[in-house]
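Posting this for the archive.
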Amino acid sequence: MADIVFVTGGTGFTGGYLCRHLVKRGYKVRALARATSNTTLLESLGAEIVYGDLSDPDSYRHNLKGVKTVYHIAALYRSESVPRKLFWEVNLEGTRNLLEAAAAAGVDRFVHCSTVGVQGEIKNPPATEDYPYNP
């Protein structure tokens, strides 16, 4: 029986490529998607689609049962049109919600994909892993 993996952000660019890779490697992909997302790629891969939202753990919590690994790729991209409050609710609280739900479900591994954006403006590049966060 194939290991079940749970992917957030599977309808996006990076997450979509990850889902393709995981399916090719024989994993059963269970992907979180918002109701407004285009899930055509996920459907074509045979992924199980879980409709929900990172900010609402009740919408996906029960779907973490039996999951071996969570790949958290989803994030709200910060731009001028996105209210700061929403950015924090999705990217900070949503990640915390997912971590807590994964731990409660007994998930073995949690992989979080992030960006250099968490370090903000870097005055003396390059930044290292020890450089302070300043999103």
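The first strand starts at residue 4 and ends at 8. The beta strands are 4-8, 28-33, 48-51, 67-72, 109-112.
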